[in-house]
Amino acid sequence: RNDSQRLGKAGCPPEPSLQMANTNFLSTLSPEHCRPLAGECMNKLKCGAAEAEIMNLPERVGTFSAIPALGGISLPPGVIVMTALHSPAAASAAVTDSAFQIANLADCPQNHSSSSSSSSGGAGGANPAKKKRKRCGVCVPCKRLINCGVCSSCRNRKTGHQICKFRKCEELKKKPGTSLERTPVPSAEAFRWFF
DNA sequence: AGCTACGTGCTT
DNA sequence: AAGCACGTAGCT
């Protein structure tokens, strides 16, 4: 059983434009895709909450007053986006897709991995150089939820053991040590996710 | 135990 | 340099 099967109708057509179209925002609206498709840490409760919030959006999209964290303050969408992206407080009460995923980062094992992995390692980091890096979770590829199903990584999943090329984290593409923690997402990209 | 996907060596 | 194949870390 390959991923495209597990993801249901996931295999998207080879057209780049269509692939961009399925760049995960809409899919996030579906509860089904709320599940950890990529084996990442998606807290089910949060999923449900965010899902409910997202469901609220369409009817209030004019003012975005549906965002509880902002106390019903009406602001232009752009302002909300930027706020959500850069304010941890806003992000923790995520409503938007991007903010939702940022919020989930807080729950990612990588953020408390210092305790869990080092202890579970038995040797407990006796071999830190061997440690696998983890996806940043904020870059565009990381935000993709669906395997394209047509790239070499998808096609060769059995032997290649690689994540879909369109989902390969930008940070992981670089050599270890060449990055400054997390690469901030360009604001233009943020808008793209939001709308 | 089984799965996903990172790291790395080999091949093209 | 890019792609492929494999080992295996990390997670469920």
UniProtKB/TrEMBL annotation:
GO biological process, one term: Wnt signaling pathway
A single cellular component GO annotation: cytoplasm
Subcellular location: Cytoplasm
Keywords carried by this UniProt record: Cytoplasm, DNA-binding, Metal-binding, Wnt signaling pathway, Zinc, Zinc-finger
GO molecular function annotations of the record: DNA binding; zinc ion binding
Residue ranges occupied by any CXXC-type domain in the UniProt entry: 129-170
Listed InterPro entries: CXXC4/CXXC5, Znf_CXXC
UniProt region (Disordered), positions on chain: 111-131
Stated name of the protein: CXXC-type zinc finger protein 4
